[in-house]
Amino acid sequence: MKGLRFFAAMLAAAALAPFMHGQDAAETASAAVPVEKAAADVPAESAAAPEAEKAPEALPAASDASNASVVPAAPAAAPAAMPSDGDLTENQKKQLRISVLKARQARVNAEIALGKARLAEKLAPQKEERARLEAETSLRAARTTARLAEVESAKKKLDAELARDKARNDLELFEKRSKVSEAELDLKISRLEQEMQLARFSQGIEQVKAAEALRGIVVSDAAAAPAYRKDPLENGKLYISDRRIEFNGPVTPELAEHVVGRIYFYNNQSAEYPIFIVIDNSPGGSVAAGYQIMKAMESSKAPVYVVVKSYAASMAAMITTFAERSFCYGNTVLLQHQPSSGMKGNLTQMREGLDSVTRWTRNINDQLAKKMGMTYEEYVAEMYKHDSRGDWSEFGDGAQRWKWVTDVVDAMEETSIVRKNDGDKPAAAVPGSVREYKFDERGKPYVELPTLPAGDMWMIYDPANLYRVGI
Question: Which residues form a coiled coil (predicted)?
């Protein structure tokens, strides 16, 4: 920058030299000061383009910056040709001032261009960095916008799922409340039915007492206050209290109603001491009736034990096996087999009947097989190993080994009843039992079984065809 200023000063000095006429340097410098002041008062617009073109002719030494080294030699030769100050006309003076101003303007323009070039060079990295940052900012803004759109979409989806789940939960809650209301209504109806059933049981108990009196069974003096045992088995002897239910003949809905009613009755008396279902002889019978008895045994607060004195087959054997404890003599016989059905009707009806038999069989026999420690298929295979017809019978010790009974006893003692000697007075039937024999056209005796409700079936062992359904 200092070099440029020096060069411009030399140009001005060379331009003034022809007009100075030998004046010394001090006078030239003093004359240049008012010229510079005057140049400062001239506006930049006065340096028009045509006058700028004349500047090189007036200052031939300033046309090339590379000749700056020879400029100092000009003042030495100037005194001979430089006119005196008095020789300059006013017009020449003006032209001189204009030339000086143009030279200064050219210098200023050159400095400005140089400054702009240097500034542009300095600002280029910043501009490039700014452009890069602006591009990155735009990219980030685009990514942020896309991410916000994804988040908004996810939020809308989540809101929709929440609304759907809320609607579903509200519906489930409504359904549960409806079910609770239905359950409460069913409970009220069930209580009314139980109260009615208890009333019938009370009436039945009176009938049982009257029937026992007719059969000559009375409560002895010693049994007026019987000693109940929580464990009725002692030294191989079973003690049966008056909390006993007689169970004989085929299992029918009437017999099931009698047995279930007595279980409820004894539970209401005491839930501490066991109840005894005593089977002298039963070939089995209705699956639904037997299932009703098993569920009453299962739900009883007092333990319900089954005693088989002589024979229990099919559904009666099932009831014995599912008891919490069961007792029999060593020569008592228990028999298990698959249910059979004399289905008739068209093919669709027979298929429906087969489906019903299969479902009942699996529901009950699966549990029996599990208690025996095997699968249903293994249980059926074992059944036919023992008998080609599948009628698997065992004496007491074998029944105990296969877990059909829990205990084999040597003796049983009925602690609460004695029988009067009333001669040939016929014994009255236990309510629900079937003991009336009929004879067919060939004179063969049989017992007529009641017709079962829809969906039920007989599970009974009857090789002699003694029990028949409506002939």
Answer: 116-184
